[in-house]
């Protein structure tokens, strides 16, 4: 099967990762790329390429369309990399016209009818949209730091239960989009605040780990407390985690085995963008952005510095690629799951 | 009163801060500077100045002495900036010869007869050495991150009590001494591990907040869990804190007032190196190394991002100068207290 | 004597350095600070302080005025830190109303009636405005890299003459103003281009070293070729210089002596902001931004790595503070000269 | 044909790039890896991987040998990544035992019987060793910055002749090996000095562009003046060039065409590691380390900011990968040429 797709906000940083990852994709063909300032211009001439590698050939000659329904009505699926204010203006309207939107924008993540999906964690929530596939829908990709955290938490949640999760993030500047943080603000410095990031971590995680039943999403009941920092790193978010499980973790080796053995539907279904192992356990003074941000092409989360405190708490440092697993890659993986699930 | 002092390890990074801070000091006159590789050489010709400002005039012509008793026996007080292995070889011996050593080395911090002092927090522990002042003794300055943490915790401990403290550090490279971390290891990267740092935070804090009674130090009973990271910052350690108090903090403004009003013996006694306010409460996306590492000449701790969770936990981001308050400055402040207390 | 002054564009990066340097200035009292986005707001509440140190007390309560004549008509002297497009709109008009403008903007630097001044180099060009002091005028402060270069060239030009100057700059991000370069653009990277910078170096230098006679500025006749790079440094521009003198430099020590002995009118007149020595000759792997950007409060240029090739060419690395000597400080020094010269 | 090779100094930074580039190489099979501190240990367990990507499987189980003849005598070819002092001790001895050494060390580069080779520039110099192939020999890979410069100069030299070359380098920290520059020395800073680097650029270039005739290497006669800087970049050296040709360059477009059309023996012979185009001409504010260090797997040089001054001088900014084209990759390309040339 081959589906025609559109990328909304395709000139931005996340938009460029979509363009990169959909180059020669086995299922999705990019038919439309939209933008605001770049609308009406030729992508290859107007858009400055900001991410790793070179701009794919296929997009160079494409004319950037305005983000409007009439340019989108013929595609099968829409990937949205819009800023949240712009997403607010258009995404619901597109659904009202029967379109299928898989979005990286934060706008609708906590809407009562929008599944918030990390495919290895809660693919079953997609049932909510499969029911009304023909009518159009939004599926939301969570916040970047939340996705990385959720992948790490999932096998622990299943085995031990979760009571309290404390997370301190050290996030790369590419997470702020482009231009993002001025160089004077970040070079040789730490910014101990990222607008709305802590709330996203604290709330989205609970929806992801919650239930979908009888048309209603219910939150999970553990607590998440988050502190977010911006650090002078280009790619990859690091998170220092302290968490208390419901059932005490007694053995570090057993914990490692559970993390290493973790698989979800994307692995079982052999989805194109799925990492072979969603979680890599790394030894020594790791994970580090320089070495771990692009594990499995940026789709795997690296876990290191595991400690069992013996009083119910364990700690770890985790790392993931904010632009790939945390944004475009996670969104594409949702689409791959949905497409395969629908047959 | 004027005392002659020696600086052990005066060519290193912390040694240089001692030299800087003792330039024109009202009480202490530097008579001896020791070193290993630089022994026998003229300080101003041989030692490369690695910290802010220029090398003080007074030290330029001094010949660096080997770190041996015979070069030290005539001074009144010894400041040690030795690496821990070298401290192990010499500090106890100096005491056995009746000398007074105030050390930044980690070697003896947990020794049963060594007070581990942050003057605003537990100056009363110095009673242990005042009793045997003429016989010689060691007083230890705690780990840099621990000092910064302890200053922040003190007013909270006194008002609310402490139950559990979670701290994630983001530490400057100057904390690793010189040469310290290779540039390839740190630039654009995060190192999620600093050897022995987490243990220091977890143990030293409890000794500092413990009691000294009948010749015995007893640890405080709350719990500290620490995760230490090295970040590409030159000066200043940042710490993300989540803590649970014994008595719940109900009001953020009250908490701020308590932090702002905090004073200890150094302020009351008007010690030369004491900051006017040991704790600065900062608003907005602060504290930040660029703006806050040198508050009150590096002797004050900055506290920001205060949050009250309502379930017993509160969070904050704190920042302090690792080389000043966390090393040379803290050590000098101990000496100033001791000198004044002894009259 | 005391003069009332205004700072145009006082919320920007250079504007903040003006505000800092005019705190407690012996001659100039800041009466008006203007801005565009901040107009009508209280400086201390609205403007984020972006440079070293703290915001001076005197400016905190001031209301930012719009950059219009009616708010400026009562001051004696105007310092302009406006962006060049805004300078174009207002500076000439102010002169037409009889005002005296000393500007850091590039707009009028090459105008036939505007002196372009580095006080140690060509203070005599100010004769052009002293003649018409009561009528109002513009005096321009040169481009930051050009000022640093000119100070280094002056004693060489006087002693040996200049034939050809090749300069490669490595410029700090603060030179681009705020927000300036996005962090993703500069961190761990080199940008080999700064818009219009090379032309400024190539042209302005010749006007500065030219003559003013019979009301006409004539360019000097040597050649300058410039290549400008942006580097991940916060404060301080470094320049690698290769130059060919008219009369061959034969002796390195003589060259050093000439550089060290260099003084100009600001030193002779004892101007408040004048560095004791405009040129510092530094040994070893120097100058470096970390150590040399703030020599003599940022007003001196550091020169190192001097080499005499023996075929007419010599090379050097020079460094200066782009925001102080290269912008606000240079501009204030011009005003100090003018004020003193007028008695 | 398949040859057994050894890598001397295989645990260092350049050694690791050799190991990476020889993974699955069509001609060379790594049989021996030597080291000093790691001798006797298993590579995969003892050596920390410091460069991009993961440690190749083939080397993980290998035992590191001491750098001694008896461990090397059975291989066909030796690649040396030794530090220069160690190279001095062993390389000549290996030749005396009839071995073939292709070295990245600087020790023998200017020896009268050692060809100093950039295959696209002066492969013909290899005649010197082909004559005595069976007796053993050293061929030297030039200094990293020199290789990058030489590739750029070659087509210009052939078309216009060269008179004077001025080069200012901005070199990545990986060029200093590991641990190399301490982070405090380089972060947010520029070091305007790299030991012996300027002399290497000034001398090696002339040997490369010289002649080999009747057993004697004669230098080219143009002049090179170099200023070397270390900058906070991980991979890739940038060089600002100003040069005067013998025959004036009149047309920028013609110059670009000549650079773009440049090919040498490695391209004609289709050597495995040869870049398709040794020179890439890039537009806009380029080349930049972030985008250009890995062009053609790090084997191509990027050239941008070309300017024709009209008085005989032209300028450009060039960039190349110091570890690949400037070290291991250049050395391997020499070996590939030699192997093919010998049939």
Secondary structure elements and their pairing?
Four copies of one chain form a homotetramer.
Chain A (H helix, E strand, L loop, with lengths): L2 E6 L4 H9 L6 E6 L9 H4 L10 H4 L8 H4 L4 E4 L3 H13 L3 E4 L15 H4 L4 H4 L6 E4 L3 H17 L1 E10 L11 H4 L10 H12 L2 E3 L2 E3 L4 E8 L6 E9 L6 H9 L4 H4 L10 E3 L7 H4 L8 E8 L4 E8 L3 H18 L2
Parallel strand pairs in A: 1-2, 1-3, 3-4, 4-5, 6-9, 11-12
Antiparallel strand pairs in A: 6-10, 7-8, 10-13, 12-13
Summarize the structure.
The structure is a homotetramer of 343-residue chains. The first copy, chain A, is an alpha/beta fold and 343 residues long.
Descriptive keywords:
homotetramer, 343 residues, alpha/beta, Rossmann fold, Dihydrodipicolinate Reductase, domain 2, 2 domains, six-stranded mixed beta sheet, five-stranded parallel beta sheet, 22% strand, globular
